[in-house]
Amino acid sequence: MCRNYAHRGLHTEDGTVPENSLPAFRAAAEAGYAVEMDVHLTADDRLVVFHDDTLERMCGVQGVIDDFTLAELRALRLGKTDCVIPTFAEALEALGGRVPLLLEVKRGHDNRRLCALTLEALRTYTGPYCVESFDPTIVAWFRRNAPDILRGQLSQPPKEYGTALSKPAAAIVGNVLTNVIARPQFIAYRIGRRPFPVRLSMALGAMNIGWTSHEPKNEKGRDGVIFEFYKPQLSYK
What we know:
Elements: E1 2-7, H1 22-31, E2 34-41, E3 47-49, H2 56-59, H3 70-74, H4 88-95, E4 101-105, H5 111-122, E5 129-133, H6 136-145, E6 151-155, H7 167-174, H8 179-182, E7 186-190, H9 196-203, E8 207-213, E9 224-227, E10 235-236
Parallel strand pairs: 1-2, 1-9, 2-4, 4-5, 5-6, 6-7, 7-8, 8-9
Antiparallel strand pairs: 1-10, 2-3
């Protein structure tokens, strides 16, 4: 049975329920949806749930999230709401083990510390969970240190990386050529055209997860879909 994952929780397009917020996670769990969320490491080595590397889009302030302490981040608000940036522990508590969790581990200032703390926290979650990352070295860390946890490589076509990566680096990660070190069990790829190495990896057994879906037709031919702004079935064949 294939599964739909609520992208950053069951948040709303108008922002009244912000992405990666406790209300979004509670709403998803109450509806029975599996949940996708993102974890960062703060300047004082605390785990928080937030997507962007910078705070401007969601909090209206300048700065990189890794440079802020937890106390400094808690003084901010998500969008035009009263919601604060949740800790990872709070997010797990909001889900309460009721639904599967798909966790994106974001690259930061100390990836080894980030991965170790994330693993420690994940072991407390009573529901099923798996991890993914755009950074193949993070996926490889989980392969070495927690081989029992299902792991996935996040990726997208090379041109979509823009200035975030050099053209050679974008070609390598966009074509999942790092699979030799990460050895992912699933590939979460941006919905659209997939390069041959991605299709080959899936033909050889890597599960096929698509992101980000805005309509049910994207479920076709995939083992899972990360969705937002509509309410698909909980799972599909």
